[in-house]
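Subject: Interface between my chains keeps coming out wrong

I've been trying for a while to get a sensible model of this assembly. When I model each chain on its own everything looks fine, but I need the whole thing in one frame so I can look at the contacts. Pasting all components below, labels as-is. Any help appreciated, I'm running out of ideas.
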Amino acid sequence: MKKVGLLTVLLTGALLMVGVFDFPAWGDPYSPANRYLSTHYVNQAEKETAVPNLVTAVLADYRSFDTMLETSVVFIAGLAIFAILRSIEGPLVQARKRTESREKRAEKRDAGGDGQDPDLIVQTTVRLLLPTIQLFAFYVVGHGHHSPGGGFQGGVILAAGLILVAMTFGLKNTLKQFSERRGLAFGSLGVLLFAGTGLLCALMGTQFLDYSVLEAVYPFTDEIMARSHSMLVVEIGVALTVMSMLYLIYANLASHGDMKKGL
Amino acid sequence: MTLAQQAPALILLFPFFGALLTLLIGLYRRSWCWPATVAACAASALAAWSTVVQVAESSNALVTYRMAGWVPPVGIEFRVDALNAGVVFMIAMVSLLVAIFSRTVVINETAGKEHFFYTLFQMLIVGVLGIGLTGDAFNLYVFLEISSLSSYALIAMGRGRAAFSCFNYIMMGTIGASFYLLGVGYLYIKTGSLNMVDISRIMHEQDLFQTSTIHIGFLFILIGVWIKMAFFPLHRWLPNAYTFAPTATSALAAPIMTKVSIYVMIRYMYTVFDPNFVFGMGPRSDVVVWLAVIAMVVGSFYALAKRKLKMMLAYLVIAEVGYMVGGAWLANKTGLTGAIFHIMADGLMTAALFLSAGAIYYKRKSYNVTALKGMFQKMPFTMGAFALAALSMIGIPPTCGFFSKWYLISAGIEAGHYGFVGGLLFSSLVNAILFFRLLEYAYYGEVETPYVAAGKRGKKKGFREKSGRDEAPLSMLVPMWSASLGLVLLGFYSGEVIAFISRYVAEVQF
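Reply #2:
Try treating it as a single job with all components included. I did that and got this:
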């Protein structure tokens, strides 16, 4: 069986290589991928959407539908972790009850929050660092359509800040501040903000996600600026979902699904 | 835009918003998840019907929807024609029926996680509907991701070996999706476009069909969808994954996920690529048809050998995939018509079978064949629906199974491929043996209490035998019977449906 597998891999690799010989030259400005649609995006994006960051323009406007669905992929990934790992009080947890006493003993042993004793240096550093991290994340989200950045990146940075807090101050304390239910609600609301913007466009009489009609909603804008503003709204939705879902995935994985005791 | 013009997008948006809102509602009130899901699925089915009507009424049998308002190759487009309108409607209907059915089983099998279950359930529907609707090759991949990811989670929520069989599925499914994505990448580097119709236009205009990149891209896309549909040598993940999944998951995934992959294959073969390209390359099509024959025979045989009802049905799904792939690769119009019609017929049949099997499991707590003994006295309505679906699976006239098989067999004769004809007849015979044996058990057998491990003091845990009739609740009977009667209805209206499909088939030049 191993040999069959090796043979398949070799065959696939060989096929891939055969295809590569036929590719356009590396970096060829006249290759189909550079000449056809990309030209349109490069030449027209700023005129049509008033967004200098072309990547964001393609991502959040031309192919915004893909991005909305990719955001929901993050949302689904988080929910999948919940569906599989999260232990809910009920028949499923009966078996775990037996091991609980052992856990309790362990907990008594290292009393003082969960995990190790709180470390003053680490905690102080995190206290100082966290606002900076979050501010930077807001910048990445908010400025995403003008400079490198965007909802996914900003959301990850925000989630990293939350995870840092959970690692230093204990998962239990962090969950008191940012509960599981709130995280799930934020995850859903983030996608809803994105899709809701699209639905609003549809309700106002154009296609789903066609931001140009939203000029009636934002003050002092024209059709093109409305696209730019909507991209910001949409990126905020993405950031909200990515942040809460990554944080909850961490919380689930770190606590073996019972949301009690983290790393 | 009027509401009717929004219909192609609404098919998808109802379950999408439904999923997001279901989670929000479910965080506070878990009992409201089911009504929310059913409402979203019902609205989606309504929108799907409206789209079908629009396609039928339009002169060129085409309804398009521009996402975000951009003109197609620049933006993403939904494209509904006579090929996918029926498939999408079937998917929406089956989802609605399974959603209604799921009321009691979800509470039983995934207690405390209903809100996660229903959110993922609707996301799976979104993914599969999107694959059916989109006209963009990359957008299709995103939907593939959504449907796969949510189906992994839904399958892993089952008990016993579910997690392990799901892991196998994740491995295979990820490899399949990667193959598809690589294939799309190869097409993109040669054409520079992602819109399916646009790719086709560029390939024709620049005569790219001779280049090896396009050949390899086609092959990779094909292998990707074959893994996703569990076509014969790549089918090993399917039986375990569908057997150990929760009842509602397998009833939803089995009818729609493999069928939509077959739709994707047909779409790529006939819309994106060209029949001359696909079949004009020596023995390739013959090899695929023979693989399909092996799939039918092997699937049927394995089904016959199994002792668990759900496992049998899972292997039958593999056999049915062989029918459709074979029909699509016979390279004639009758075969293509038969394959497309069979997508709809088989989706409904599989749904009816899995739903009635789920109802039997709900009452008997066992999938063993012996648990079927005497079921006609205990659950006459459930078994009635099961029998009707079984007849359609075998291919007996008033049901739609007969008509699709008729088309497929005559296509085999037309193409002179008697191996395919023989394989199909043989597989139908094996189906007949299998189902008549089950029905015989159910009709003549004595009721047998299935084996349940005895608890303390001989008390039987989790199973209470009731004397006399013990029928499944109405929330199960209604969808089950709707599916079974739908089979007869689709049989009666097969002329109209096939006339509708042939508006697509007529444009294909062999």
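Reply #3:
Confirming on my end. Chain B has a mean pLDDT of 88.
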